[in-house]
Amino acid sequence: MIRVGVIMGGVSSEYEVSLNTGREMLKALDPAKYIGIPVPITSREELLAGVNGLDFALLALHGTYGEDGTVQGTLETLGIPYSGSGVLSSSLCMDKALAKTVIRSQNIPTPDWLCWEHISEYDPEAVQRLGYPVMVKPNSGGSSIGMTKVNHPQELRGAVEKAFAADRSVLIERYTAGQEITCSILGGEMLPVIGIQSLGSDWFDYTAKYEQGGAEEQIIRLPAGVEEQVRAAALACYRALKCTVYARVDMLLADGIPYVLEVNTLPGMTATSLLPQSAGAAGLSFSRLLDEIISRSLQERGGIAAESEPEPEYAGQGGGRS
Questions:
Q1: Which one of the listed residues 140, 143, 169, 297 is annotated catalytic?
Q2: 14 counts as catalytic
Q3: pLDDT tens-digit readout, 208-247
Q4: CA distances from 124 to 13, 160, 182, 194 (A)
Q5: Is 18 tagged catalytic?
Q6: Are 307 and 206 in contact (CB under 8 A)?
Q7: Per-residue confidence (pLDDT) for residue 304, from 0 to 100
Q8: Which end of the chain has less Cβ packing within 10 Å, N or C?
Q9: What is the side-by-side order of every strand in the sheet holding 2-9?
């Protein structure tokens, strides 16, 4: 039996989201293979104490300290294998502006942006040149916390101050109208694409993500040419940003062109979250998905392996519901 510690909580604004993820993971772990151990943390000291005696760390963390490579580096120092991407990839993807720079270097479309490291860099003329509307967001945040759609120049200052209250740097990104989609990747293979329609606002905000009835999420079938562009863009991002095991690439489809918004190395992992939904459409239950993540992570980093089973044959993009 593998002693799996589910690391949850953390120090970011996504603390409650992380606790929810952790609780769902613990319920879904196969008791025939794993001893699931909750490890709620709010500090490095709690992490060090909580991981003592673990065979594997299943990360349910989101945001700063959990998703930015910090915890990953600590676990590597302690010699404890953990789930998902490594230190470099985690750090790269957490910094949205840096990730977008890498993405654009691969000739993958991503909306134009500005990044300010301090409120003293506030420059409304630069935003005017970028073009309204814009999305103002914490550069390293998640779950749409601290994020605002700004339609007019007079709304800009308040939105920027709100984002700086949540992070040390702020991303101002040109708003792109289109179909929001998310592309889940497991072991370098893309799972069925999910289309997202926010029901209460014109973008996928916190309410749409986490409140009942806030959004409609369903597996979609894309035209063949568009599907190939989406697949190519998602996998190119995954490789360029050094992701391993699993990740989720968020995009907007505008006039048949996929624009990459960001890459999540620790996306939401409750049973109804986007990546598990996509895995379910490919024939993987939530429990089996966690199995895959654990076994692939152990292969990536070494560690005690669970009893071997035949490799699952899950469908890629073509195997989802239409």
A1: 143
A2: yes
A3: 444 555 678 999 999 999 999 999 999 999 999 999 999 9
A4: 27, 11, 31, 35
A5: no
A6: no
A7: 63
A8: C
A9: 34-41, 2-9, 56-59
**In 3-state terms, what secondary structure has residue 320?**
coil
Task: Give the pLDDT of residue 201.
Answer: 62
Q: What is the pLDDT of residue 120?
A: 95
User: What pLDDT does 214 receive?
Assistant: 60
Domain ranges of the chain: 112-174
Tokens 């769902």 identify what position?
24
Rounded to the nearest angstrom, the gap between the alpha carbon of residue 63 and the centroid of all alpha carbons in its chain is: 9
Which one of 262, 273, 278, 314 is the catalytic residue?
262
Catalytic residue among 9, 50, 63, 268: 268
Q: What is the 3-state secondary structure (H, E, C) of 147-197?
A: CEEECCHHHHHHHHHHHHHHCCCEEEEECCCCEEEEEEEECCEECCCEEEE
173 is catalytic: no
Active site residue 264: yes
Superfamily of domain 112-174: ATP-grasp fold, A domain (3.30.1490.20)
The residue behind tokens 């957490």 is: 94
Check if 268 is active-site. Answer: yes
Q: Where are the alpha helices (DSSP H) in the chain?
A: 15-28, 44-50, 70-78, 87-94, 96-105, 124-130, 156-166, 206-210, 224-240, 274-281, 286-301
- Residue 15: its pLDDT value, please? 87
